[in-house]
Predict the structure.
Amino acid sequence: MNEEVFISGRNIPHIDPHLSLWEFPISLYLFLGGLSAGILLFSAILHLINKEDEFKGAAKWAPIIVPFALALGLLALVYDLGNPLYSWRLYTTIRIESPMSWGAWVLLIVTPMSILWVMTYLRELFPVIKYENYKMPFLYKVEELAIKYKKYMALALLPLTVILGIYTGILLSAFNARPLWNNAILGPLFFVSGLSTAAATVILFAKSAHERHWFSKIDILLIVIEIGLIIHLIMGYYAGTEMQIEAVKILVGGDFTTMFFGFLVVLGLLVPLILEVFELAGFKVPVVIPAILILIGGLVFRVLMVEAGQITRILY
Amino acid sequence: MVIDTLKCVGCSDCVVACQTENDVPHGYCRDWVTESVTGTYPEVEIELRSERCNQCDNSPCVRTCPTAASHIIEGGIVLVDRDLCIGCGACVESCPYDARYRHPDWGTIDKCTFCVHRVQKGQNPACVSVCPTNCMYFGDLDDSNSEVAKLLAVRKHKVLAEAAGTSPNVYYLI
């Protein structure tokens, strides 16, 4: 038996009794980042294979929320900084070893690109928009350029959105001091989970039953992959060292069990999976329900990992 | 730095000295004393340790810092440049020793500096200089003639969280 106490007292809020420096804004950002990456990736692929008109919801309507989602996510990130007025310091250096530096730079590129991406068809969807009414006629020029280079934008978005989606997981897994985060599967898992929430959003925006069914199928595939990766994740902990076996107790039998199995695995993955399969099989299921469940599940997953991961630590 | 756990009585003088010397905000600390009890009563063993930033050679905090605010100066001390730090907390999350905290007034990250301002003048860090049992030793581990190197050569010692692979530079004599 080993028992340790701080006899001098530490009394450092956010460090003792356990670390909780990163809170909800970080989880929210990880969710929005993954969601935006997924939507942009779908849209870019649809543009490259010339299926934009067949899948209008995915290619054109859903990406409209991306600039807003990214802006909200960035606001959340900056809000969580201790010294937000200095956040521009992120862009005075490139640190290859620091995932947060990667993320900051990718966001700097993807966020304006998402705006340009939406601009290429915004007036087609909303013909009432006339830039001269807002005294910004130069936007026509920007739009023209964006449309001209849309294909290159789509090609650039392929790697960028993948990096953005994986980065949301790598941000956490790069810390070996937190055994619950420190595994190689978290990056791909967050990426797939982000794609799945993006597919759910597309289902909400879908303009035809054909499109909805296609994205239901994609979502089913993504959920199955995600469940596989989660099993892999849990197995990885049990096959790991004492620290990881201790860490996973927080998800299996610990404080976060209900959140993990109840809200993520059952309500966030299995129930929507079954509902979507039923819907495809011809049963009448309001598609809003599985889509919303997946979105909530995705957010719960981020909150859960951020909060629980910070409680786990290296034993010594 | 070398700390003799057999001599430490857990008086916390090092903690108070540090708070005074470095103007650490009320309710925070850069070093602390841990009492570690192993075994089952009545066969128990107590170890007292004064803990702080381990000034690791392979520092995860320096690696994960997105703005290069966390850096290692010549001689091996890990410092935070307050002009570069944005207070994101990546280093706090990455530290296996939980040795860092966000300063409540500055918003930037703060930690033990080995009293670099004293060391550069040839003095010992505040915690070392006040220890009433002289259980702490400070010096150059690379210099085989230094007191710390000699102690490590003859005494049984350990480092904390060796499994984290951080190559810490605070040694505990056991």
The mean pLDDT of chain A is 92. The first strand of chain A starts at residue 2 and ends at 6. The longest helix of chain A spans residues 209-238.
